Automatic annotation (TrEMBL), chains A, B:
The entry's keywords: Aminotransferase, Pyridoxal phosphate, Transferase
Protein name: PLP-dependent aminotransferase family protein
InterPro entries: Aminotransferase_I/II_large, Class-I_PLP-dep_aminotransf, PyrdxlP-dep_Trfase, PyrdxlP-dep_Trfase_major, PyrdxlP-dep_Trfase_small
Residues spanning the signal sequence: none
Cofactor(s) needed by this chain: pyridoxal 5'-phosphate
Aminotransferase class I/classII large domain ranges (all copies): 63-374
GO BP: any one term: alpha-amino acid metabolic process
Transferase listed as a keyword: yes
GO molecular function, one term: transaminase activity
Lineage of the species this protein comes from: Bacteria, Pseudomonadati, Bacteroidota, Bacteroidia, Bacteroidales
Residues spanning the membrane: none
Length: 385, 385
């Protein structure tokens, strides 16, 4: 049968995730992988999870595994409202914050519409934007003068997607001034800001900066997730947004998957409201601070001259810039052969540029494997410089 | 802020679920509700679930709550492959079979494309099709002669959506002859068949009919779900399909939600492969057979003359046809006031016709509430005849 004639126009723009495709082909446990965005397995509260499951089944009975409300179970929305000081009516639970990105794009962007992003930015967001055939326009800065984007393009923007805290892939954080500039730009040109905040609670140094949501709640869709503060296997996230936008998201979500996983939501609610989340988060932050510091010192020790990197205050990633003649896409197979994996930085640039960069994850590997991996990687890089 | 100018064209076609909106407004536990498609809470194996959670956490450790593969965890795909005799390469796990419907529509239908359906059909599918601005064309029959659809329209069809077993809302089952006719029609006109089979394993009488997937695996996307054979709160389903179609679905799912919920998948795999599913299913079938029989006898006893209904061999629903002057949409508030809920049948017709019909669920209420509810409903109907 000829399937080609059947495919929708969107499929022509689908972009495979090089990260997820790596996972399909290679047994990453056999090599030193800085490629994924996996949390350290040691941060998963396995005993808590076992207890939470038994506890919510005892407390809620059949309700814990029956169909749930599309907006999410009330107990979880209340726990989030309480923790973040956001009204219940402004909270929608999502089946992962990737779904948050997808559903925001779905309600806002038609083919050809402009979506503003930083460059580089999160690959999974680029996948989603491309799949809807939107025009992705990178901002060079957040003011009208520094943006490097013509006014007529800004006027066509539906939203601007940013990860203000410890960005994926850069590890960088937007200053308060930059956040205010972006709010002013969005107000002038009438677009919404999608603030993706998966790493916000993983801060290891420096002072928290107010969320964009707190600066401009009427023009922001703020995405949160349990993936980095509980466990990614739960696939639970949330959106804070103005009620008029959340109403469209609510109706859209009915046809996407009816409701988020229910038992998982009750477990997450109890994890949050019982104080277990905060206790676990403190331990995770300690662990990751040490890993970030180790990674920075290993890079300092082993990387050849001409290589520089970001110094993130939190999150899971840092970003390397190699001498301009090094092509990290071409270098990838050699690295894999040597037993080390990374993600080429150019995948995070909407235009595929910056082929002399790479993203390194510092959360996943244990300390001895991290040292082994950075040594291997430094050798591979040195051979290409 | 003016959000209206920002919304995508799709949002203009979003259709609210009257069923889900009822759940938002009314405390259904206070009335006799035949409205939802909820399984009987007594079929949920709560003790098993508690055990399964502890068991998979002990066996798989951190892997059970880490990110998983986009196609689903191998153990679950293997359990499904074994149970249904389908090759592993033809199985994609979905985050609910509603997501299965959504993702099939996304990869196949552009705005204005034809999707063939029966009429009536599942409301959540209509929501999805409308949200992509497809043209929904009802088939009167499954042969070229009986379809009642011009050849040029059939030639524009991307897929035909059917629920062959114990259809929602009708409770009806397609004969083998009808399935074969549909396969022939799809072959002649080059469209795919989306076979939604959520109720297939809930057969209370009669003989199973082969799936459309078994008749035409190269042109069928078959959707299954754990919602009616385990518990709906898990939001897990699967698609059987040709590899070329599954590959597009795989890439699409990366940007939809990365992967299905992981702990839930391991629990479902163990529920299936340990034999617990079959044991639980036998009990559920016994329970539902009794409820279906009770519902049929109650309708016989209480409904006024001029009311007829389907006699399903399985599933969760039956469908009432009232005298032509009765408008079940208009009658709804009176029914709710009397303490009984249903879903007006016209919501299941793509053109909103058949306002003298209603869908009744017989799985959810216990036996005494069911009798109370049918008495109330019969009075409301009698008052309108």
């Amino acid at each position: 049968m000829n399937y080609e004639r059947l495919f929708s126009k969107d499929t022509g723009n689908f972009m495979r995730s090089p990260v997820r495709d790596i996972f399909k082909k290679v047994d990453l446990s056999a090599i030193c992988s800085f490629a994924g965005g996996y949390p350290d397995a040691a941060t998963f509260p396995l005993d808590d999870i076992k207890e939470l499951c038994a506890l919510v089944l005892d407390r809620y009975g059949a309700k814990a595994v029956q169909y749930g409300a599309t907006q999410g179970v009330t107990e979880l929305r209340e726990a989030i409202a309480e923790r973040y000081g956001v009204p219940l009516a402004n909270i929608q639970i999502t089946t992962s914050s990737q779904q948050g990105i997808d559903v925001c794009t779905r309600i806002l962007a038609d083919p050809g519409d402009v979506i503003l992003t930083t460059s580089p930015t999160y690959l999974g967001a680029l996948q989603s934007f491309k799949s809807y055939r939107a025009e992705i326009v990178p901002l060079a800065g957040f003011s009208e003068e520094s943006a490097g984007v013509p006014a007529e393009t800004l006027a066509r923007a539906k939203f601007c997607y940013v990860i203000p805290d410890f960005q994926n892939p850069g590890g960088t954080t937007m200053s308060l001034e930059e956040r205010r500039l972006l709010c002013a730009l969005s107000e002038k040109y009438g677009f919404v800001i999608v603030e993706d905040a998966p790493y916000r609670e993983l801060r290891y140094s420096g002072e928290p900066v107010p969320t964009i949501w707190s600066l401009a709640p009427d023009r922001t869709l703020h995405l949160g997730t349990f993936s980095k503060i509980f466990a990614p296997g739960f696939r639970l996230g949330w959106i804070f947004g103005p009620e008029e936008l959340l109403d469209k998201i609510y109706v859209c979500k009915q046809s996407l998957d009816l409701c988020p996983p229910v038992l998982d939501q009750y477990m997450a609610a109890e994890f949050m409201s019982s104080g277990r989340l905060d206790a676990n988060l403190r331990k995770s932050i300690e662990l990751y601070r040490g890993k970030r510091d180790l990674m920075l010192s290993l890079l300092e020790r082993y990387m050849p001259e001409g290589v520089s990197w970001t110094h993130p205050e939190g999150g899971l990633f840092l970003f390397l810039t190699l001498p301009p003649q090094v092509d990290t896409v071409a270098l990838y197979d050699r690295a894999l052969g040597a037993g080390v994996a990374y993600v080429a930085g150019s995948f995070f640039y909407p235009d595929g540029s910056h082929r002399n960069t790479m993203r390194l994850n510092f959360s996943f590997l244990d300390r001895s494997r991290m040292e082994e991996g950075i040594k291997l990687l430094a050798d591979v890089v040195a051979s290409a410089v």
